[in-house]
Design a protein that fits this description.
mainly alpha; 2 domains; two-stranded antiparallel ribbon; 2 helices
Length: 77
């Protein structure tokens, strides 16, 4: 499913970023698409996981922050 962004651009859901750089909800959507929210938390989490790996335990705070952010938008991870 494609995300909907301003200027008729779509999100690159693999990177979580819009081609135009700004995501918006469609008028008929009740909430934004998952790839369009919590981008800063997702980037920090992903960078930590790439550097340290999930098994190191060093990224748990960042993972938790991302989950809390997503929950705030109504997503359950």
């Amino acid at each position: 499913m494609a995300c909907h962004c301003s200027d008729d651009k779509t999100c690159n859901c693999s990177s979580g970023k819009c081609e135009s750089g700004k995501c918006e909800m469609k008028k008929d959507d009740s909430k934004p698409k998952p790839c369009c929210v919590c981008l800063d938390q997702k980037q920090a989490r992903d960078e930590c996981l790439l550097i340290h790996g999930e098994s190191s335990g060093k990224c748990q705070d960042l993972i938790s922050q991302y989950k809390v952010c997503m929950k705030g938008f109504g997503f359950s991870i």
